[in-house]
Amino acid sequence: MTPMVKADQVVKNFGSLEVLKGIDLEVGAGEVLCLVGPSGSGKSTFLRCINHLEKVDAGRLYVDGALVGYRQKGDKLYEISPKEAARQRREIGMVFQHFNLFPHRTALENIIEAPMLVKGESRATATERARRLLETVGLAAKADAYPAQLSGGQQQRVAIARALAMEPKLMLFDEPTSALDPELVGEVLAVMRDLAEAGMTMVVVTHEMGFAREVADTVAFMDNGVVVESGKPADVLGAPTQQRTKDFLSKIL
Ligand code: ADP
Ligand code: MG
Questions:
Q1: Do β-strands 58-63 and 5-14 pair in parallel, antiparallel, or remain unpaired?
Q2: Pocket test for ligand 1, best of 18, 34, 44, 56 (most atoms within 8 A of CB)
Q3: What is the distance in A from the centroid of ligand 2 to the CA of 30?
Q4: pLDDT score, position 172
Q5: How far apart are CA 219 and CA 231, in angstroms?
Q6: Which residues form the ABC transporter domain (predicted)?
Q7: Average of per-residue pLDDT values in the chain
């Protein structure tokens, strides 16, 4: 089966700074990959490459079998048009640390915006799905609330519903609970766990080791632009073989 994400020696530089130094990773359809590692190791950059926010400098990055941002002819790569890139990107949902909801739109309006604007859906169709999604994330009663009237955890759950409204085949999460008060973390992780159980393919950057241990199919530990080790959560988190992984885990656990 074609993996949903495949990174083959992915390299990304910012000027002379090598941020990704040859990343090899694979995420099967329906699987959850948790990326862990110290700040500055390249986790966000890797997600941003998957989501067309950064261009890969070398190597190959595929989503669902298609090269991200390029088309290959023989040995040569050609950049795809912005329109084609937008089409690829539409199939990927991303949730950031900061929720970035439109402050002057209600929860429901935030969720229907992209399907109407990007997919040309009718308001009725988009609204019907949005209400279903609000129910999924436990916020059916908050459809008409403005972001400022919601807690951080609720806002993040709206942001997840908003990403899901585009019916993505892949969801990327970049430290979705890092900006939340500790008592609000659990409700967001619970929504993510439900999503994983429903079969969504997910790449999750997180420091929540409990979540990684219970929900991830694979945990990859990144440090300094490389994947130091990856495997089953029980192995990588419970019995790491690399000193760098041990050092990181001893600090975080
Ligand atoms: P992580 O998410 O693991 O904390 P990042 O992917 O955000 O790491 O960053 C990896 C490295 O790349 C850091 O040294 C960071 O300063 C650098 N970096 C990230 N984005 C840029 C950018 N747009 N320009 C220059 N350097 C960047
Ligand atoms: Mg980051």
A1: antiparallel
A2: 44
A3: 24
A4: 98
A5: 6
A6: 5-249
A7: 96
